[in-house]
Amino acid sequence: MSSPLNFPDSDDAPMQNEGDAQQTPTRRSTGQRRQLFHTPSVAGGTPATGIVARRALAGTPGVRTPVRRAQNVAAAASSSPLNFPGSSSPGSRIGTAPQPNFDESDDVPMSDGARSGRPLFHPSTPMSSPRRNRRGDVHPTQFVPSSVRRRNVQAQTPASALGSEPPAPASSAPVLSVITPSEGPDTTRVLWGTAVNVHDTRDAWIDFLKNFKVKYRREHDRKNNVTLRALLDPNEGERKQYVDYLNKMRSTDQTTLNLDVTNLKAYPGTKNTLYPSLIKYPQEVIPIMDVALRDAIQDIMEEEGDVSQAEWAWAEEAPFRVRPFSGQDPINMRELNPSDTDRLISIKGLVIRATPIIPDMKLEIDRGRIAEPERCPRDVCNAVGTMNLIHDRSEFADRQIIRLQETPDSVPDGQTPHTVSIAAYDELVDYVKPGDRVTITGIYRSIPVRVNPRQRTIRALFKTYVDVVHIKHGDDKRMGYDQGTRTDSASHPVSLGVGGEADDSEHNRNPLLTVQGAVLDDPGRTRQQALEEELVRISQRPDIYDFLSRSVAPSIWEMEDVKKGILLQMFGGTNKSVAKGGGGGGPRYRGDINVLLVGDPGTSKSQILQYVHKISPRGVYTSGKGSSAVGLTAYVTRDPDSKQLVLESGALVLSDGGTCCIDEFDKMSDATRSVLHEVMEQQTVSIAKAGIITTLNARTSILAAANPVGSRYNVNWPITRNIDLPPTLISRFDLLYLVLDKIDETLDRKLAEHLVSMYLEDTPQTVGRDILEPEKLTAYVTYARTKIHPQISQEAADELVACYVDLRNMGEDARTQTRRITATPRQLESLIRLSEGHARMRFSSEVRLEDVQEANRLMREALRMSATDPNTGLIDLDLINTGAGQQERRLRGDLKREIMNLLEATSTSGGRGGIRWTEAAKQLQTQSSVRVDAAEFTEAVKALESEGLVKVVGEREKRVIRKIVAEIRRAPRLPTSARSLSTRATKVLSALGIPTETGKVIPGVYDGAWGGSGEPIESRCPSTGELLATVSTATPKELQDAISKSRDAYKEFRFMPAPRRGEVVRQIREALAAKRDELGALVSLEMGKIYSEGQGEVQEFVDICDYAVGLSRMMNGRVISSERPGHSILEVPNPLGVVGVLSAFNFPVAVYGWNLALSMAAGNATIWKPAPSTPLCSVAVTKIVANVLEKNGIPGAVAGLVCGGKAAGEAVVGSSDVDMVSFTGSEAIGKIVGKAVQDRFGKVLLELGGNNAVIVMPDADLSLALPSVLFSSVGTAGQRCTSTRRLYLHRSIANEFLERLQKAYKTVRMGDPLTKGTLLGPLHNEGAVGVYKQAIEAIKSSGGEIIAGGTADTTELLPSELHRGHFVQPTIAIPKSPSTSQDIWRTETFAPVLNVALFDELDEAIEWNNAVPQGLSSSLWTRDIRNIGKWLGPGGSDAGIVNVNVGTSGAEIGAAFGGNKSTGWGRESGGDAWKQYVRWSACTVNFSNEVPLAQGVSFDTT
Prior knowledge:
The chain has 1502 residues and is an alpha/beta fold. It has 41 helices and 50 strands. β15 (634-638) and β16 form a beta hairpin. α29 (1058-1074) runs antiparallel to α32 and α29 crosses α33 (1175-1191). It is globular.
């Protein structure tokens, strides 16, 4: 049989195989692109020029070069590089034996079933468009034919079935191949420039595939002193390994064969031929092996005989590929040199970066450019410059550039790691991730670099890279990565194709798979199965826990509990995402365990870290002193190729799925430590630099070691004082162990003997002990992390709860009423992770009682070592969480109090200069019963200084402590207004049509007509105390009449179409806008807010009318699919009825506007009961609305008004004709209103108190936060429901912020709210002044300090006409304690009083923010996206308004307004608030001929 690589003798001669005289007519490929290659002949002729003609094939015996026949334009196809259809009709012939079929114009072997017309490429299926299966990783420099063999087919295909093709114009383009007309029988075809025989190479490769046996490799390993394992089966050595692989490829439809090149070297037939050829000329040999691989598979199929057509089609059309890899140790990448260019190499390293997928055009490209034809090759055209590259019809391959760096263990001392660029193609794209340790086998390339892209001059230095042909993951001596960190789409298979890591793991010499003493009864069982069975047997040992802990770092003596904790860290818990309780798939709970070792030098901390690092899958070992924040997270660098900024992963990101070992943890800078807070809890790294904003995964366990201050641990100090780490970072470790160097003669002797035994024979005493070798321990841990995912049983869950409660109860002290914190939810989560790790260690799919008990023991032991208060000997977790235990905090408080007493005594005795530092310390030491440490004294003075109570001046011994005395701010005296206030009031009232005659009572009831004969109420100006007007109220009968008329008006108004109702609201909007300034002045006159705020309130009414106008056409219901055929379900909104609005004095116009606009748009009638102290605003607004209703012929009772006091409010609330009550006011009255409405099953909307807080982080823009806090706390004299009552400042910026805020308070101008320039008006009435005074007294009596304002005495600050006004000074107070259990923090003071507290962590401030009963508005000032996410998330603010970099006041109408908790849960204004003003109905409509019941219920009586 002829070789599959045979070529036809000539184009005009029929094709003929050796030994077969039957001539076969040729067939022409239809509709296929053609491509000619430059193929110089060995026998003679002129070599062609061009990029493709660098090397070519010379013929082998029996293989003849295709020869272009004489130029016969009518019969031959065009010789142009661009292929066009031939002019002859295709013929067909189906032989009885496998024979190649050739295309006349291409001289390429063709398949009857699929004629691609292109050499080198596998044929496509008849139903698919021809595609070019060029390998991206191998770029052959010469023509390699594709061998396509035909299977035996009994049926004949008629020629007519093949169709026909119209002729195309011939071309006179020049011939691109110069080929010898004939070759002699002795012609030898070799690789161009080499002595490698193509035919011999193919035959040797096929011989290897068919005849290589396991015994050849074992013999080779024996000669090279490689440790051999015992054969599982005596006949295993005779097994034909690659025949098994080929059969596996057939059964699994895989097309890639991974070749261990060491096997080529071990096989006698390829040792001196194919092996060196593959190493030296991989880009020529690998394509030949690809082609021959198909032939070998087809040979096996022919030998079997009974093969399905589908398998034959697969064997003919699939693109087979060989991926060689080195089975021996790879070379170091720094050893690569120019002699390795174009050779097959193998290197290992750490992936540090991988680019996105790059489309790689499948064309021959010369130095980055495509040689485009200058003119059209067809004679009918022959035009110049008409050929264009069609990109969207071109073919591209996937390509990716990977940066590979030397692993730390292979970098020579004193040198920096080398990096190499790796080019991955096709299925190897995205096969590795940054942080993976890989072994790369590929072709070492070098390409010239141009000096300038527009010039042809190139540099003397070439740029090198590696074209990858094979990638092997991991290290045999390292654990597998945590598969929980890879999604299904991101996780890669163990090996691509057959014969790689996955298949060789069954039969190779990997020490991980060595089974000692295993007896296999089943010869078919693989070594991987045998290893798993052995690991399962090991897991069933009763002492498995102690056995494995002894195996962890066996050279380190003792430290049993530390090793057990690290062992459970290696196994880890289960990463899980809870589907319920968190939107978007639920929150993710980490399973990684963090461990911190703290102790004296020389206690093997670093050795343990090195041991864990060596067996971790993606572990990175770093030092705290040598690490920076960007080195741990990610840094921006410029890509040398694209010149664009790219993100390089740091140590934590590279450790994703593994363990990050950090030595010298205490030597880290503050900036570096701040990064770890997010990593250790959220396991992410947020990046925002150089225009790159992203969040990277850092799902890693952290094993850290820290040295104490002064290199020696002081047992008399708490751990936070022994190590220079913030408590918030220490608290994030699951286990914290103290490794102390204690003096004990017995232990010292045993340790010395252990160390000496290691140095004597390099065989420590642990060798004789029962331990598991590191390789098998690695396999054990890998198996557990991969296969075992334990779930918590009910018994274990109950035990976890009990253990957590017991830990909490450890803080009880019968001698005192206080309780120490001995456990937090973090300890509970740590218990869960440790329990899961212990269950994994046992290969258990369920967490049991024993797992929880051991986890609890480890947790208690770690707490006993690290969280024990040295002063009391009791566990106090606050030592770790806050840096100070309960006893220490109490001592600090006493110390601060005594310092203040000393300063007070000094000032009383006439001293004004304070007290010297040394003198104060000496006096405290004398009068104290316990020793006062100098450091504690310093901390106490710093705390007093940060609180603004004392000030330290001078340096060193000359330091003096002085007490700070709060100064009362005095604003400049304002000039007396030239116009009388009563005159201005008259002008304002007259502009709104309100009578100003003396003694005239203004009607305060409107139900279509003005009236009211009840007890009149007075309206007074809060600025001057002047009586503005007297307004009548409604009698009980008038109240009932007004409500009844509103009910009647509703029955008529509800039938008006919603768009027409919207038009009425629009007209109200226009009328209000026309009177905005006048109404704003009235609000300032009657309520007391400054003029611009009064205008803004009226503008809110105007804006909500605009909103309601649009809403009137958008109050839509829903159509819902029904489970019953022929049915539909509708949700229909309809008018609700009568809405009662009870508004408060602080917003006498806007609150009513929010309700009226939405209520009218929904088709309801509204009855308004305003605050009794602001009747004029309600009368003025109602007059404007009534005029619009009258013009449109709408009953005036649609917008009724009843002024009055408590009786009027009770009548509206208790009336069954009022379907919904909207109440704005205090919490106390809100409870009464809510109960009364609920008693009659009415709807209620409550908007009550708002004890609002602002949190300012250290990264906030203080220049923006300061004016916002100032307005939110001082605006409207603190009488907004959204006013800021509480200010929480980060301790690091508290002094600066308070100093600037105090200065800003001094600039606030107090005076007549109607005067331009006034920023602070009066409180609304005398009762509000009383509330202000009570709040100030409460702060002072509880030990708090007033640092600004604090008095209602404003006579010296205001002109005489305002002395009767209710003015107070805006106040900044610092209560003694930030505890939210005090009434100072929990009670809303409706006055300009701002309470300030300092915090250290955002979590602490959020806890304070949420600890009060109210929940209306809140604000966070920060520029850190992580803080924003926490603030807005489920653990953030629980208020109804959660602002970021915006104050608590100043809400817009677009979003619903309202609060949570005791604020009432109501929502007004925008958003979906309108849905509360309608009555919802669900309607099921049946339009079928049957009446089926829902849920499939059958109720048939027939």
